[in-house]
Amino acid sequence: MKAIKYTVNNQKxxxxxxxxxxxxxMPWLIGFLFLQLYPFLASLYYSFTQYSVLGQPKFIGLxxxxxxxxxxxxxxxxxxxTMKYALISVPSKLFFALIVALILNMRLKGINGFRTxxxxxxxxxxxxxxxxxxxxxxxxxxxxxxxxxxxxxxxVNWLGxxxxxxxxxxxxxxxxxxxxxxxxxxxxxxxxxxxxxAASIDGAGKVKRFFYIxxxxxxxxxxxxxxxxxINALQNFTSAFVITNGGPLKxxxxxxxxxxxxGFSNFKMGYASAxxxxxxxxxxxxxxxxxxxSDAWVYYEDGGDF
Length: 306
What we know:
Keywords: Cell membrane, Membrane, Transmembrane, Transmembrane helix, Transport
Pfam families: BPD_transp_1 (PF00528)
Mean pLDDT: 87
Number of helices: 14
Order of helices and strands: HEEHHHHHHHHHHHHH
Distance between the termini: 52 Å
Transmembrane segments: 21-41, 85-104, 116-138, 158-188, 209-228, 269-291
Strand order of the largest sheet: 1-2
Largest sheet: 2 strands, antiparallel
Protein name: ABC transmembrane type-1 domain-containing protein
GO cellular component, one term: plasma membrane
Shape: globular
CATH topology of the largest domain: MetI-like fold
């Protein structure tokens, strides 16, 4: 009888601990269910409806998706612009992040202060205020053209030409390399010094040591940064909206702007939901492609797969 009572008491205590754990995660669970999962599933339903917020959603099947791919030229344009933006900004951002991380990994006096300074843009770069400041800097009478005039060079219409407008918003994305840089720096710190010393004794120079030791070892971080920055670039909205408003001639009309225009300017929430799901599919395809390609270029210390 004592053994049975002891077992029953243990089961009650275990159940009580389970309830306590559930109680502590309840705020996150409620937030996940009502602020993430429900909107996620609701947008899928709305993507098959004609929904203008003010009225009831009317089920129309695949009409929204068919219209996007067959009738709407702005949608195709926004996809091409978004791809171009991602292909320019992501490699550039990772390149500069790695270069700066290599510099900050050197043993220099006051290097910790420089590390902090270089990380600050990553904290501020995505805000509307910084995008507005970026716009002021690149306007016809902005500070950048003033500097060009001081050194005798002609001013550039940064925001009024298709090529330079895309360069401007890409440059803002690249300027926010702080988070990637910190991860690269952490990876560089983990590289055993013995490997570089042994390679140096064997006659390998700095360039060879970088390509045959440093770069292979940090490829898992390159892989992680590539995925995260690709996702961020494909979802970008703020810089294109604030700096160029999608112009000129919709040369910076990202898919995020297309989604915003249809949903919050034209009040076509069903149509906007369809765009959001297509964007989700594009991000998923890019992510799966990067994962699949990682077998050929990502090195893991234990020799295993991700």
